[in-house]
Design brief:
The structure holds 3 protein chains of 3 kinds.
Chain A: H1 2-20, H2 24-44, H3 48-69, H4 85-106, H5 116-129, H6 134-142, H7 144-164
Chain B: H1 2-20, H2 24-45, H3 69-100, H4 105-110
Helix pairs in contact in B: 1-2, 2-3
Chain C: H1 11-33, H2 42-60, H3 62-65, H4 72-91, H5 117-144
The chains are: A mainly alpha, B mainly alpha, C mainly alpha.
Chain lengths: ~180, ~110, ~150
């Protein structure tokens, strides 16, 4: 448990660095560090599938963000915030604390999940589907609609990127 | 309980950054940090003290109590959707830079056009 | 490879890329195919396959790499994956309900087991890998045409 708290504190420090530092490239690299720390936390919480996916997705997210940031004419962000921005941010933080304290009494204590539906998945997963990886059987057999929805969202996002980044005059016959 | 509070602090930091910064890239960074905090909260709720990962190693071996596999499935989907969202935000930011020449939200708001 | 030596990254990076490109692709396919036995599955494997192609484009520079891979192939890969997943879902209708697991489940812990789960993993890998590589391809082509007037190529 001590390792979990230390890693979470380092993630919060990394997030603070990403928010407050002025250079944009340093900010993106700090977000990459937060993502890698998150992958380690997932390993500590006995979730190897999720840790592997978070690691590789973090790498691609940092590559895409650096492509958006590098070689632009404004590499540093200005110092002052938006009008009433800081006030809004702090107000949201207070609201979050007020709403979450009763909610935190309701969810189970760390380490004792309820597992009402997942209990049946764990007991009869191997016989029903034949897959040794229970998470794969949950994604692709018990909850396959969610995977279909996720495929649709990814498809829509790729369509969106293609529609937004369209060149009016294409160079030398390159097709988009 | 401490882990839940630290996770909520991370979420609050992400939303604070998305709401109060002037640069578009910082806004994207804030949204990404908030998404990490949400995924972490899911996996924290499903953790069992002294549990094993939800994978059967070999037939007929006593494993011990397994960690809840249902949040893992939801978080796997959510991570990939978060990547798609970040990519679309970055594409829109690049388009805005090409049209207005700056990433500053205040200047873009003045150049309405 | 007859590309200009000042395109892309240095010679060390290019040599290492030639050696490790196939290994990364193979590793991604391994994680996809064993998705029902070990951690991983279609999503992680698909992202790794996309990363191997991104590695190629980053190491050899935009102009040399796009002569060898086509970026419309990425869209076709993604569409094939999506249609494959939908076909598996509709074929499950023959066994009772939409998205049912209709192929026979072999013995557990073998590569050809667990019904239609490995095929669905392959479809997801094609979809996610193709989609992410298409996004990266569009970003690269867009960036190459908006270099700011004060700075040219690196």
């Amino acid at each position: 448990m001590i390792a979990l708290y230390i890693l979470l504190s380092m993630m919060i420090l990394g997030a603070l660095v990403a928010i407050e530092v002025r250079s944009l490239i340093s900010s993106v690299v700090a977000v990459g560090a937060v993502g890698l720390g998150l992958s380690l936390v997932f390993l500590l919480l006995k979730a190897p599938d999720v840790a592997l996916t978070q690691l590789v997705v973090e790498i691609i997210a940092v590559i895409i963000l650096i492509r958006a940031t590098i070689r632009r004419r404004l590499p540093e962000s200005p110092v002052s915030a938006r009008p009433y921005g800081v006030l809004l941010g702090l107000g949201f933080a207070v609201l979050l604390v007020m709403v979450s304290l009763p909610a935190l009494q309701e969810i189970p204590r760390l380490g004792h999940p309820y597992m009402r539906v997942a209990g049946t998945y764990v007991e009869s997963g191997l016989q029903d589907t034949g897959a040794a990886n229970l998470v794969a059987s949950v994604i692709l057999d018990y909850r396959a609609y969610d995977t279909l929805g996720e495929a649709t969202v990814l498809f829509t996002a790729v369509m969106g990127v293609m529609a937004v980044l369209r060149n009016r005059g294409l160079k030398s016959g390159e097709e988009g | 309980m401490t882990a839940y509070i630290l996770c909520l602090i991370l979420f609050g930091l992400g939303i604070y950054c998305a709401v109060s910064k002037r640069n578009l890239i910082k806004i994207i960074v804030g949204v990404a940090i908030a998404e990490y905090a949400v995924n972490l909260m899911f996996v924290l709720v499903g953790y069992r003290m002294g549990g094993v990962p939800p994978i059967f190693a070999a037939p007929g071996e006593a494993q011990g109590a397994m960690v809840d596999p249902l949040p893992h499935a939801l978080v796997l989907t959510s991570i990939v959707i978060g990547l798609a969202t970040t990519a679309l935000l970055a594409a829109i930011a690049m388009r805005i830079y090409r049209k207005y020449g700056t990433y500053d939200v205040n200047e873009i708001r003045e150049l309405r056009g | 490879m007859a590309d200009r030596p000042e395109d892309g990254m240095s010679l060390i990076v290019k040599t290492v890329t030639r050696l490790t490109l196939g290994l990364i692709l193979l590793y991604g396919l391994y994680i996809v195919l064993h998705g029902h036995l070990t951690p991983g599955g279609g999503f992680a494997g698909g992202v790794i396959v996309a990363l191997s192609l991104v590695h190629l484009v980053l190491a050899f520079g935009g102009r040399s790499a796009w002569k060898r891979i086509s970026h419309s192939g990425a869209s076709r890969m993604e569409a094939t994956g999506a249609l494959g997943f939908l076909a598996l879902a509709l074929l499950g209708l023959t066994a009772g309900f939409f998205l049912s697991n209709f192929l026979p489940e072999g013995r557990a812990f073998e590569l050809f087991s667990a019904g239609s789960i490995p095929l669905a993993n392959l479809a997801i890998c094609l979809k996610v890998g193709g989609g992410l590589f298409a996004v990266f391809a569009i970003l690269t082509i867009f960036t190459a045409e908006t270099t700011s007037p004060d700075g040219g190529e690196r």
